[in-house]
């Protein structure tokens, strides 16, 4: 496929990417108070543990999930649609954790012309939401989302606690997914977002939107698959009828996905949700819930150029991300009907604007506070900004982030289970 020309550089950049010299400050950990499992949720164009020839989204050449398990934290890695909307990713995440067949909703399916049902999963944690006979309390989970994964976990919590009025109105009660009836209160103890575009990313405003990054991921996966004769990347777009045909080459399949008209004709994709306008629309109905602890971490890997007034990529940034950083570090927009983009958006990590990471602001009423050692429930506790690029913070590149995630596990493990 034509996209293959960038593959070698892309792969080398991911595997041998940036090494930040700054170590992130960590919140002091208290004694462990809950044993709620941790679920790691990847961002846009991410992949599951069994894909990419074992190169981990969470850890790169290391394995954060296994390390946390060795550290006595029950941990699971989600594998939701890498290019799908947050609604569909949240529905998939629910089924992956609880078990069962993905139900995207009858009203949603009709509105966007997708199939209502998706894949069936055994469930990481089938007892989720049940009363634990030992503690007498509801079994909960701690959700950790990187990049778009932070939007996805917010969406899941919103649906769990409030349901969907559209699905309730459109679907007969006997056929309504439990996710949409609004009865799953307090199933999530905490939600942690890392480098999440809560207010969107201006990278979406680059050439042809956010999809060119899918193009590069698709191309890299196709190239690797061709080397070993197997598929290493799953787009999980079955709801759009983009399931791979029997006997279809991966090159043909990836071309068909990339050239699908869905990218030009619907808001039911990651492309819309990740832009500032789409994020504002998401923020208008996805709200912080009063019984959930919310934490947010920012990342920033650019510096102020005194000659241009722009933000340029740091020398430690992954070379693959540097062109993005240059674009975002100089981009502004002031158009009627769109979220205004000023110089306040210049700082970035190569994929997401730092201003977008502390919590939802555009179209949102959520409260964002600076963490002072005592987490405030129902509010976004902003933990600070790390000197890492977008991939390095999850270990894609040279940094070994296992110790950082152990500290993060200790932080959420110290939350009281109510």
From TrEMBL:
Q: Which reaction does it catalyse?
A: a triacylglycerol + H2O = a diacylglycerol + a fatty acid + H(+)
Query: Which InterPro entries does the entry mention?
Result: AB_hydrolase_fold, Lip-like_C
Could you tell me which residue ranges the Lipase-like C-terminal domain spans? Answer: 35-404
Signal peptide range: 1-27
Q: Indicate where this protein resides in the cell.
A: Secreted
Look at the named UniProt entry and state the broad enzyme category this protein falls under.
Answer: hydrolase
Keyword Cytoplasm belongs to the record: no
Q: Molecular function terms in GO for this entry?
A: triacylglycerol lipase activity
List its EC numbers.
Answer: 3.1.1.3
**Keyword Signal appears in the UniProt entry:** yes
Q: Main subcellular localization, coarse class?
A: secreted
Give the source's domain of life in one word: Bacteria
Q: Name one Pfam family in it.
A: Lip_C
**Which keywords describe this protein according to UniProt?**
Hydrolase, Lipid degradation, Lipid metabolism, Secreted, Signal
Which BP terms does GO give this entry? Answer: lipid catabolic process
Which cellular component terms (GO) are annotated to the entry? extracellular region
Show the PANTHER family listed in the entry.
Answer: ALPHA/BETA-HYDROLASES SUPERFAMILY PROTEIN, ALPHA_BETA-HYDROLASES SUPERFAMILY PROTEIN
Spell out the protein name for this chain. triacylglycerol lipase
